[in-house]
Input
Amino acid sequence: ARVRRLDRQLAAWSARGGRLVWTVHNVAPHERRFPAAEDALADLLAGRSDLVHVFCDTTVGDVPALAAVPPDRILAVPHASYVGWYPDSVDPATARGLLGLPADKVVVGLVGALRPYKGIDTLVDALDEPGLADVHVLVSGRRGRTALPELSAQLEAAHAHPRVHVRSGYVPAGELAVHLKACDLAVFPYRRTLSSGAVLAALSFGTPVVAPAQGCIPDAVDESCAQLYDADRPGAFAEALAVAVRRLTDPAARHAARAAADRRPATAMSQAFLGSVFAGRGTTPG
Output
């Protein structure tokens, strides 16, 4: 009923001269509660949108609802970095001291909203693999709004592990640099992803990443600052993490990570996006 109501509202909006731009972040909601309605909503947005904004060209093949969208209604503008948009005045050593993390160990971090698909369990299990026996983990962020038994079980296992440091709660914008720069690597043991602002946030603070080779992530990084892996292959994350610990925990990798973020300035991305949106109206943004 809600999808049908939204369809009527969007039809009325278009009839009044309004335009609709849909930015596609995910293939589908991460915690699916109403699959049929969610799929219908995606089809509705694809059909009603004047422009469909994707972060890379491969998104069109990854999202079924986009199959019927004409190419001239697809707008590909990459996800911007966050360089210059968050305070960044702390060095890695100071950041570790503020969070109580060991100064002489490799620390990897999963920072951001805590949800089941982000694979906290995969990360904790990886610590028992060869080459990772001395690695420490920072898990920090706020739990999702929905109470999910799966997430509770993941966090319970994380709390129980002696080398996992859990800091539950919202990370304010002013403290994001502390949590990311305290880590040698930012890790993303995601089960499924299409685009990731969290990857761009890590790069923005010069933190190399371990992430799945899915969606738009390969377009944002190269081997100088990232270790990608096949999320569909069992054990691939642990293997990738072990390789990253050997080759990406040095100043050169941090420099490369920040350079990757600098190549995606937010202002330029915004101008490209808004320029395309307003071009259809015969106007330019003020």
Notes: The longest helix spans residues 2-15.
